[in-house]
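Researcher: Please generate the 3D structure of the following complex. Treat every line as part of one assembly.
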Amino acid sequence: MGTTGTEVEQGGVGLDPAAKKTVLRHFSYGLYAVTAAHGEERGVFTANWVAQVSFDPPLVVVSVEHDSSTLGLIRASGRFAVCPLREGQKDLAGKLGRPRQRTGDKFGAFDLATVPTLTGPPALADTLGFVACTVVSETPAGDSVVLLGEVVEARVLGEGEPLTMRAAGFRHAG
Amino acid sequence: MGTTGTEVEQGGVGLDPAAKKTVLRHFSYGLYAVTAAHGEERGVFTANWVAQVSFDPPLVVVSVEHDSSTLGLIRASGRFAVCPLREGQKDLAGKLGRPRQRTGDKFGAFDLATVPTLTGPPALADTLGFVACTVVSETPAGDSVVLLGEVVEARVLGEGEPLTMRAAGFRHAG
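Model: Done. Output below.
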């Protein structure tokens, strides 16, 4: 049993950074391609801070870092899609995690096949499928923004098991 | 490749319920005990709609159904704790998922050992640890409420791998 004591600092309650990191690294995540489009521009990035949050209506949250270039497209269009990646797509998850400032349009740079959706955001053909969402609300969350989206369209595109952070060997900072 | 066509209904965009369910079931989750206390009352429930959403400051979201009896304790105290369950704690996850209206105080009913925290919510001793959070904001989300919490205390309580929905054999409704 590794018990790391929580330290009391400055006469108050202190947050032990090592314990915080260790416990937050025990949170489990899948890996997803999140997409958006506005006008001629389209964006895609790898996300793991994703969860459903309501059954009825079906709602999901996605946390997006402020410096994501896709965030502007989501805000301009009011839409995004979430495509769960498949087992074995670790390399794709790595590529889609690169900043667009370096890669240019990732759809072209990585030769990504897309499936048109009825509601706007491009879906990646080589994933398990997509849910397309309209943005219901946006909540500031430190270095990121939590987008709450209502699922308005869904389609199954492939079969298999979803890729997880653990299976990919990715470890988030915690 | 199972491609389920999205149906267009009533002249507009239709949401295919079967595709929506299939894709949302490809989302990956861990399993957590979420706790809160206010006065003499304490509550705990099993959650899977949990994610970190910011590194700096460290923020997490937890989606809680409106009819959760622990939600009142979280609101009254402004605090909650998230304890990642360990591999093999499927039975505990099942027990903590029962409504308190049926079980009574779950800490007594299931003989749960707790660890006192400096910030209020009781932590379950037999878990990987806890992050205790202050509620930063609350967002209505259909049948649930999305709580955004800032991590103010953390402690490691055990070693091992986290329990996932998949490993537990739990399948959420999607």
